[in-house]
Write a structure and sequence with these properties.
With about 300 residues, the protein is mainly alpha-helical. The protein has 14 helices and 3 strands.
């Protein structure tokens, strides 16, 4: 069996049996396609540790990040573990493959004052009634107010909102559903968009006249991640840098929650993190709260 043939069987296993997200499966497909290209036209059963090390070394030479190389290592380990268990290969050549340690980088965080300024500017633009301006204001209020991932925002349907309780039902990583709260400013922005913005965008739709998506693109279909990235980069770029994306609003929300005294486990639930360790990175960002606690509590402060 060739590498690419085995990879496709493995990817079907990830999608149909393990139910991994389409984004994860796409990333693994690209990684394994790169492995097949690096190894050439050889049988999967003859791939050895040297082949795998050479493949990763090529990635290092290209300047790929540690996180990318670590993901590729995880992809190939999972692939060969599956191939060994199913009898496709006699032994697992990836057992001694060592991934580089991921460097821990603190997320970019906007100040509360900077975000207030951005959101006030968007609110003023939305007040003029343009459907896209109404949508953009509502999207940024939800990204920040509910600490959403961009995929969660794009996947929202109108029926996912409980306006009375100010909560939204979102589908997170691993197809895990959770309910997240959002604030009054986000509710006001959503209400304005639903009344004056979404109907106008929906009227531009050329296909099915009924669409469940909450946030719509310029042509009336469900908004895509690229459009959200462009919006956030345009609005937050001057504050955080040219390459800022929607995750910066999620990082900022988590940090500001901790600054305001929120419990770490509550923040974990809001963010939908499987591990508390993932949420703890925000305690390193939230230095203002830690310093204030020290000054209040320590007798020698």
């Amino acid at each position: 069996m060739e590498i690419i043939e085995g990879a496709e069987a493995y990817l079907r296993h990830l999608s149909e049996v393990r139910r991994l997200s389409p984004a994860t499966v796409r990333a693994y497909r690209a990684d394994l396609a790169g492995l097949a290209l690096a190894c050439g036209d050889i049988d999967l059963a003859v791939v050895d540790l040297d082949n795998l090390r050479e493949w990763l070394w090529q990635a290092v030479q290209r300047g790929d990040s540690r996180a990318t190389i670590a993901r590729r290592t995880a992809a190939v380990r999972g692939f060969f573990a599956w191939a060994t268990e199913t009898g496709v290969v006699p032994t697992d050549p990836s057992l001694r493959l060592v991934a580089p340690k991921r460097g821990r980088t603190l997320p970019k965080v906007a100040t509360a004052d900077a975000l207030d300024s951005v959101l006030e500017r968007l609110e003023a633009a939305a007040a003029e009634g343009d459907p896209l301006a109404l949508r953009d204001h509502a999207m940024l209020e939800m990204l920040y107010g509910a600490a959403l991932r961009v995929s969660e925002l794009c996947g929202l349907d109108v029926d996912d909102l409980d306006r009375d309780r100010r909560t939204a039902r979102v589908l997170g990583k691993g197809s895990k559903e959770r309910v997240v709260p959002f604030g009054v400013p986000a509710l006001r922005a959503i209400d304005a968009y639903l009344v004056r913005g979404r109907p106008a965008l929906l009227a531009r739709r050329t296909g099915d006249p009924v669409a469940p998506a909450l946030f719509l693109g310029a042509r009336g279909g469900r908004i895509g991640p690229r459009a959200v990235y462009d919006l956030v980069s345009r609005e937050l770029g001057p504050e955080l840098g040219a390459h800022v994306g929607p995750h910066a609003l999620r990082h900022s929300a988590a940090t500001h929650l901790l600054d305001g005294g929120a419990d770490l486990r509550a923040v974990q639930e809001i963010l939908g993190h499987a591990s508390l360790g993932t949420t703890q990175i925000y305690t390193h960002v939230s230095s203002e709260r830690l310093a204030a606690s020290y000054r209040l509590a320590h007798p020698r402060a």
